Structures are given as structure tokens and as C-alpha cells.
Amino acid sequence: MTAIGIDLGGTKMEAQVFDDAWNVIARERRDTPCDYPDLVRDVANLIGWAETQGGKSAPVGIGAAGLINPQTGLALTANLAATDQPFPADIADAAGRAITYVNDCRALALSEAVFGQGKGHRIVMALILGTGVGGGLAVDGAILQGPTLTGGEFGHTSAPAHLVAQHDLPIWQCGCGRTGCIETYIAGPGLARLAKQMTGQDVTPPQIATRRGGDMAQVWQLWCDLTADLLHSMTLTADPDVIVLGGGLTHIDGIIDDLTAAAQRAQIGDFGVPPLVLAQGGDTSGARGAAYAAWQAEND
Fold first, then answer.
1. Which residues of the chain are under the pLDDT cut of 70?
2. d(Cα 201, Cα 243) in Å, to the nearest integer?
3. CB 290 within 8 A of CB 107
């Protein structure tokens, strides 16, 4: 056995055990508890289960939404009962072993860079478009992160002023505590919010996608333009070889073509844009990326 990865979500958590060829040889899914002591205990128990599948020597990586403040060790997360708690340290204590804890979007970026759509490329960026917006940057097969551990929180960059003003959009409060974050416009709830603002209708993202050739055409076009502006900023920052898209909104048919066209419109002059591709790993990516980060930490 090579490594253990745990994909820790707000409702479900899944452990995956990987062999030397990075194939999943065992997996276990359990409900995510809603209170902190049970959460720590159950994650530690899940690690224990994974260890029984192939030995206690395998490194363990956990990928979860949210941030860990490197100065305090405390978590900030909207979908787990762990905010203001020393979550990684408490898991390690409960499990009686070292763990590697990474943001789930960064874990997906690493997984796609090493095993998926970014394989063979040097600079790989990932953008997750779902209930929230986040991502990561992998360079030479490793997550690029600095002293704040906030790199990749693309959803909390500011929305483009020219589009907000042109369409007379409100400045919405973000769950991070700031206002005007791009996430409030282009995450799944943001897309529905745009439709309500522009048409007065309460519609879901799948309904908007289905009707984007009709009465939701302007809503969809604006969403593409807003998302493309973020892709433009990402391109100007790192000039990646490829940008991998993941998350629930990327299940919309034709999204790659629509966003590629919008990204080209947002680019400077007639310069090109990085290829946009859909994440390959699916529900394996988060756990596999976390497991690989743990393997790297042990072998570097």
C-alpha cells in the first residue's frame, strides 16, 4: 500500500486506500458528524479502518474544505463543525499518528496535475465551480503554497467592476466576511442570484443551463463573462499550461466551449488563452490528491 487519502465533506467522508500504482484498492464512506468531538473521533476511526486495509506505515492525507491558519493552527470552514478548533492537531492526537491536511481544492489540483488532465504539464491551475469557488496551483507536480496557506482561494478575489457596473449588479456579502467576492456571483448560488436579479425568477443552475438558449440567455452570458474575468486574472498571474475545471457547475453540457469563448473575449488583444479542460478524476480526485500530498511529505 502506498498511501491513504480521506475526502472530508460536509455530509459524507470517504477514505481511499491506494496501492503502489495509485489504484484504489479499498474505500469506505461514512456520514460526517455535526459536532466537533464526534467529528474528530470519527475521522480518527476512519483512519484506523484504512490502516487495517494495508498497514500502519502508509502516510495519511486529509482533504477538506476551508482553511487552516498557519499562525494559530485553527480551522476556518463553513461546512464542518471545526471553525476555531485545532482540527488537524486534534485528528493527529486522536489517531495517534502524523497526518497531512490540505484544502480539498488544492488536493484536486495536485491530483489532476500528477494523474489527470494536467499530467505532463509543468504549471497546472484548477478552478472549482460549485457551491463555492476555489482552486489551486500545482507546479512541477507539487502544490504551490506560501506562508498564509490562502493561495488558491480564487473565489474571494473581487468581482470585476466593469461588469458589475454595466449590469447594475448589487455588491453582495460573502460568507468569508468580505463583500463583492467573485464567488457571490459565479458559484452555484451566485448563478441563481444573478437570475433572480436580472429576471425576477427563482430558478436553479440546472434550469438556467437548460434555458440558456431562451429566456436565460442573458443570465448565462453574464455568468460566463464574470467567470471568464476570473480565468483571465488567473492567466495573468501564473500563465498556466492548462486550467482544470471541476465542481457541480462543470456538469453543464457545453460549458468548456462557452467559457473558452468568453475567456478569449476577456483576454488582452488577440493573445491566446490556456486550454480549459474538465477534471478527470471525479470523486477520486480529492482523496487521491490528499494521499499524494501525504506521500510527498514523507518522501521529499
1. 1, 55, 283
2. 32
3. yes
- Burial group, residue 45, by CB count within 10 angstroms (0-12, 13-18, 19+): middle
pLDDT for 283: 62
pLDDT value, residue 78: 87
State the helix-helix crossing angle for 255-266 and 217-238, rounded to 10 degrees.
60
* Pairing state between β 133-139 and 75-76: unpaired
Pick the CATH number of 3-107+282-299 from 3.20.20.220, 2.60.40.10, 3.20.20.140, 3.30.420.40: 3.30.420.40
From the list 179, 225, 183, 219, the residue with the least C-alpha distance to 202 is: 219
CATH architecture of 120-278: 2-Layer Sandwich (3.30)
